[in-house]
Amino acid sequence: MLRTGAVLVAGIIGAVVLNAVLAEFIDDYVVRVINLCGVAIVLAVSLNVINGLCGQFSLGHAGFMAIGAYVCSLFTTTQRYYDAASAQYVSEPSLAARMAEMFGADLAAAGSEQLQSIAAWGFLPGLIAGGVVSALAGLVVGIPALRLRGDYLAIATLGFGEIVRVVITNIPQIGGATGLPGLPPLANTSWIFAVCVVCIVFSVNLQRSTFGRALIAIRENELAAEIMGVRIARMKVMAFIYGAFFAGVAGGLLAHLLQTISPATFNFMKSIEVVVMLVLGGLGSLTGAVVGAIVLTVLPEALRDVEREVNLPGIRMVVYALVLILLMIFRPQGIFGQRELSLKLLRRVIPGGRK
Amino acid sequence: MLLAQATPGSFDTLLQQLGNGIAMGSVYALIAVGYTMVYGVLQLINFAHGEVYMLGAYYSYWPARWLGYVPDAGEKPSVPLYIVGLLFVAAMSACALTGMLIERLAYRPLRKASRLAALITAIGVSLLLQNLAQMAFSADPRGYPQLVQQTSVQLGPIALANTKLIIIAVAAIMMTGLHLFVQHTRPGSAMRAVSFDMRTARLMGVNVNRTIAMTFAIGSIMAAVAGMLVAMDQPRLTPMMGLMAGLKAFVAAVLGGIGSIPGAALGGLLLGVLEALVGWQKPEYTEAVAFAVLIVVLLVKPTGLLGKTGREKV
Amino acid sequence: MRKALISLFVAAGLLVAFTAGCKDRGNEAGGGTTGENVNLGLFVSTTGAIATFGLDTKNGAEIAVAEINEAGGIKGKKINMVFYDTESKAESAGNAATKLATQDKVLVAMGAVASGLSLAAAPVFQANKIPMVSPSSTNPTVTEQGDYIFRICYLDDFQGGACAVFAYKDLGKRKAAILANRDDAYSTGLANFFKSKFTALGGQIVTEQTYAANTSDFNTQVSNIKGSGADIIFAPVYYTDMSLIAKQVKAQGINVPMLGGDGWESDKLVPEAGDALEGSYFGNHYSQEDKAENVQNFVKKYTDKHGKAPTSLAALGYDVVYFVKQAIEQAGEFDRAKVRDAMAGIKDFKGVTGTFSIDSKRNARKPISMLQIKGARFLPVRQIKPEEVE
């Protein structure tokens, strides 16, 4: 317990230091890609709990992200939309601003800097609220998921993600198809990697807890697990709630990194991207999820210049798909399988290393 | 609730929507057959099936273009009937080949692997075909040769394009033919045997590999026909056209009961009509309804309307 | 716990490996030119759901760049156009923008097509104080993101309003049906602004129908329109959908004119729609019938190179490069702040898509030409000026 706390604190301090270092020495583009890696890590690690540990194949992560992103933006951003009936733009102050007003702040007199800091104060509650609402959605998805397995579950969760997207598109108050522009740039490296650390530490602890072992038991043999006294229904739903919570938080982070969100950002290709990260690293391996997330975020960016050199627009996605197919045929367990990357493994792999 | 909002003339609109729904549903049914047959023998959601449908349309477009029926500018000439027939044969055989190739290269090596690995491969094949098509054919939408002069046919209060009637008729004939083939011929029994129990079928002397290849070929032929019929009715080809059509056809297959050919037909028609009815009242939720139906069916009757109850293997 | 730490270290290691050799800061003020070249960025989607519009824009821009470089470049420097694909995804647009801003250090950036992607790129360029000009993002919020963000197309509110004025006053229509692509900000934007203007004028919207992206069977929506008794159908969609819609409208026996925006412009529209659009109207930046020399020159060059006539997106892609050229020349030097100021002051820019000035909100202010489809030709009916709609 104490150790976990120490690691968490160290990790969060590390994230803040990393932010300062990156901002000072590294160019913005690279920082941005690093930040996207961080978001991808949270996504992949959280999906790993559902898909990897518990073996419940979900293709609905984009739906959870969307919920988290939109809820979080309600806290930080003034919602401004065009109301066709009255032919006017309507502005709804952010929840952070409303809270500040309740505590007696005078928004009309506040300067833009003050407004920005109010928005910044809304970020943490926004992330948490996004995660919580998304976790509730996880509960809603998790319960029916009890009756489904395998590819039926996959397709049902895909359907869930699409339904979320269609519903958001049809709500003009949150921007409809246009989405929400002008989100404040709050998700910097500190925030993203602090969340990353929290997510990874929790997930490691989870893997080793009774809960984690129960999930693995369900994955390996549901019937046997049930006989051994694992409460399957409860465990599965918990896995969904856990995964959905962090997916929602990651959605909030992504929204404030991109500074604009629209339903199109959260289509089912997004879910598939996260699944591919997991599969590449090795379904069930936490380190695998981390590596998969980094590789698949950095690779497309690194290929930008290559694509320009060979002048074959679109070749990136073709390579991506081919790699996926070949990986499944020749190494279906992914890079790490269900193993974790550890010093022991490195020692074994590197020739001349200490036995 | 629906009828309470009825206004004069809206009964005609309802009938019209039923007509639209049946036409849409016929297409879903033709594509759904491919999903249902493959799932029947391999327990695999062949995600790439929607792309085979897309390729079916393109496979008939290129020879037609080469023969000069799709000029770059100006009026399109009408296509003589024997050429239309040849185009159908060309698209059907090319799609059958594509289907068998996908099975041989991507799915056969995975037959003993986990079903998830197979599912992810299927997603990969779908992405690959989509993006290859985008590179090869360009993302620009393409027109389609005028195989049939489109006219409006009035059936009482329902006005449907003649191409829609062709879709409904061809789909009905193809589905009946396929049903008879599966139920009453030797290769058809082989397919049913493999779908029932692959190992026993092999022991009984059925060539499992060939039967599976044939399943893919037949499914792809149906998709090719669907692709061409839709292109005749809605002459716009894009590399992305298979995505939504494929997903919805899959929903139709699940709705009807996966593994059952009459089920695919029923599921397709029901989904088409349901979408039209939702579209009549709330067009903005048509897509959401398709998926909501899927989830409800999976929860309430996972075997679908006409599917057989599966056995739990322990 | 050790494993968690190790995975973090591995993550950090991989990131460092990626960052190696990337660190190159400084000379931000002097960015924009390298040797004999002036670096301009272009970011549009050439893959993904909206690839076809990005490709048109890129084709148009490339013709302009080739022309300018042939004629000696801008103030003696050749244009080096750095292009990145935005994959029809907001993340990718933001990444491409950041790369253009901080690694390629472009003087001016041009893009994106879709408003959603421009909104992801705009904060990046604003933060780096690099002028960004969108050729075709019509959503009003785009240029509200900062004083370095410009556009050379109409806004949705003007175009939607102009169509409403045209339908109500010129065509005398009172009952309009709307058919829009709900997944597309351009389409829903025009639909909304048409709706408010048309009802403000005294007309009635009898039905509002929407469809999802990639739909090709519109019969459900068309049947609803048929039952609504509309005397005009406003369909603010792209030509790729419009030819199909027109055929299906006709097949259900509806005989009212249809009306649309600049998304209709394409030489494929009429061949694909057959006679289903005969007599219908749409608003556009320019008419290919325009005898002006620059229009004819562009149309010819484009047709020769790509085997098809340019769409309005291609024309806007062509114009955006010349627009940037004029701004740099007026600024007198390769300095971003000065180029921005020059851009904000551009008056009567003569482009292929019409003559326009930049207003105080950094939007192009230009008239819209209402065209009627007659045979395979688009005949000008009349021009609507921004004052008429406001």
Summarize the structure.
Chain A is an all-alpha fold and 355 residues long. Helix content of chain A is 71%, strand content 3%.
How would you describe the overall organization of this protein?
The complex is a heterotrimer of chains A (355), B (314) and C (390). Chain A has 355 residues and is mainly α. Chain A contains 15 helices and two strands. Chain A has one domain (2-267). A two-stranded antiparallel ribbon of chain A has the order 1-2. In chain A, a hairpin with a 4-residue loop joins strand 1 (79-83) and strand 2 (88-92). The longest helix of chain A is centred in the C-terminal third of the chain and has 27 residues, at 232-258. The two termini of chain A are 32 Å apart. In chain A, 57% of the residues are buried. By secondary structure, chain B is mainly alpha-helical. Chain B has a single domain (3-300), classed as ABC transporter involved in vitamin B12 uptake, BtuC. Chain C has two domains: 33-154 and 293-358, Response regulator (Rossmann fold, 3-Layer(aba) Sandwich); 157-284 and 369-389, Response regulator (Rossmann fold), CATH 3.40.50. Chain C has 13 helices and 16 strands. In chain C, the strands form three sheets. Chain C has a seven-stranded mixed sheet, with helices on both faces. In chain C, strands 1, 2, 3, 4, 5 and 6 form a six-stranded mixed sheet that branches. In chain C, strands 12-13-14 form a three-stranded antiparallel sheet, covered by helices on one side. In chain C, strand 13 and strand 14 form a beta hairpin. Chain C is globular. Residues 16-29 of chain C have low confidence and may be disordered. Chains A and C meet through helix 1, helix 2, helix 8, helix 11 and helix 13 of A and helix 1, strand 3, helix 3, helix 4 and helix 6 of C.
